[in-house]
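Why do we care about 3D structure at all? Because function follows from shape, and shape follows, mostly, from sequence. That is the central idea of this module. The next example makes it concrete: a single protein chain, its amino acid sequence, and then its structure expressed as tokens.
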Amino acid sequence: MEHKQKTEAFQKLWGKYKYVLLVVMAGVALLLWPSGGQGAPEETQTEPSESQTDSLAETEVRMKDILSKIDGVGELELMLTLESTEQQEFAVDTELSYSGQTAAPDDYTRRSETVVVSGKNGDTPVVVKNVSPAYRGALVVCQGGGNAEVKLAVTQAVAALTGLSSDRITVVKWKS
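And the structure:
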């Protein structure tokens, strides 16, 4: 008889508070998910790469080579300007510690350090993502720059390669 009363009481409480309990259990599961209960999750830190000018020069050379193969372009010069440089995001290990009550800590300390891998050539930071440079504009000076069809083809090619809109690309005729 006592077992039956406990079961009925549990069913009554479950019926009344089941959604609250489900939300609490889902919250606990989400809190434990990213870190596995082992501390703070990894974050990323963005820093500029070292060879931005080399990268821009290489891009200009490659684009110049491919654009010169468009019918009617002839000889050309190309200049790209950058809005932002190429960047790399590194993996960062973050540790958060606090004193006082969990709900309202008195003070906390956050410590972050870049994750590195040791190898033959020393320590190397772990790169999570490479962010390509954002271009500001492009200038193309070519022999066929006076022809509307050539201008359109060059503008479309530069837009496809850089992500620039056509109003940021100028194609002009080479001085005779």
